[in-house]
Amino acid sequence: MAERIQKVMANAGVASRRASEKMILEGRVKVNGKVTKELGVKVDGNDIIEVDGHLIERENKVYYLLYKPRGVISAAKDDKGRKVVTDYFTQFNERVYPVGRLDYDTSGLLLLTNDGELANKLMHPRYKVNKTYVAKVKGIVQNDELKQLRQGVRLKDGRKSARAKAKILSFDKKNDTSIVSLTIHEGRNHQVKNMLQAVGHPVKKLKRETYGFLTLDGLTSGQYRELTRDEVKALYDLDNKRR
């Protein structure tokens, strides 16, 4: 994927994007051996970029889908020494970071990448990426409670959640529990737990099963796979569909 040269320079840690633009205008940057002073020039992974005679090293962009187990932190490191999601990717040269987060005790689908642009876009509220969760909750969920979830519920911070898709998958009268599917596009802290708590059903266990069009198909807890080019393109295209 071709990108503006100043953006590539910034991503490679040469300088900020604005400072990189200044270097280009000053004639300090070469692309494939030729000085370029145009800010609109786009380059891809096959182009050779030099700044002040030095080659810049570009990290390949990588994209992974992880089936995060419970008891793992959605972060690159943890000051308490607990297992983090990036521990699953230490064999790679590229450093990846989680896109958003899942709670420590929540399992399921989590994206990791070193593509900051895509990560920032996906986490922006305008994207409204649908995410489906399956929750085991205390109590037998009633139809009127599902209706409340579908219409949006008042959370403990005083704000009302957006409309959600909600349905009961099963229930166990003996153990007084229900299995509920909830599809939302918001990403507030503890969103699903707080929504179900608001209708009187504390979450006992939670799993994220989908993220947009992506699923956990073929993976078991702790496994991951690399996204295909078509999947990465489709994630980028989500922005175009919202405009």
In short:
Its EC number is 5.4.99.-. With 243 residues, the protein is an alpha+beta fold.
The helix/strand order is EHHEEEEEEEEHEHEEHEEEH
What is the number of independent domains?
Answer: 3
Beta-strand proportion: 25-35%
Helix content: 10-25%
CATH topology of the largest domain: Alpha-Beta Plaits
Q: Which superfamily, in CATH terms, is the homologous superfamily of the largest domain?
A: Pseudouridine synthase I, catalytic domain, N-terminal subdomain
Q: Any idea what the radius of gyration is?
A: 22 Å
Structural class designation: alpha+beta
Regions with pLDDT < 50 over 5+ consecutive residues? Answer: none
Number of helices in the DSSP assignment: 6
Number of strands: 15
- Rough outline: elongated
Summarize the main sheet: 9 strands, mixed
Distance separating the two termini: 21 Å
Text of the CATH class of the largest domain: Alpha Beta
The name of the CATH architecture of the largest domain is: 2-Layer Sandwich
Mean pLDDT: 91
Keywords: Isomerase, RNA-binding
GO molecular function: RNA binding; rRNA pseudouridine synthase activity
Organism: Ligilactobacillus apodemi DSM 16634 = JCM 16172
Domain RNA-binding S4: 3-61
Structure description:
This protein has 243 residues and is α+β, with helices and mostly antiparallel strands. The protein folds into 3 domains: 3-55, Structural Genomics Hypothetical 15.5 Kd Protein In mrcA-pckA Intergenic Region, Chain A (Roll), CATH 3.10.290; 63-126 and 214-242, Pseudouridine synthase I, catalytic domain, N-terminal subdomain (Alpha-Beta Plaits, 2-Layer Sandwich); 130-211, Alpha-L RNA-binding motif (Alpha-Beta Plaits). Helix content is 23%, strand content 28%. It contains 6 helices and 15 strands. The protein has helices at 5-11, 17-25, 116-123, 143-151, 191-198, 229-242; strands at 3-4, 29-31, 34-35, 42-43, 49-51, 54-55, 63-68, 97-98, 106-113, 131-138, 165-172, 177-184, 203-211, 214-215, 224-226. Helix 1 (5-11) crosses helix 2 (17-25).
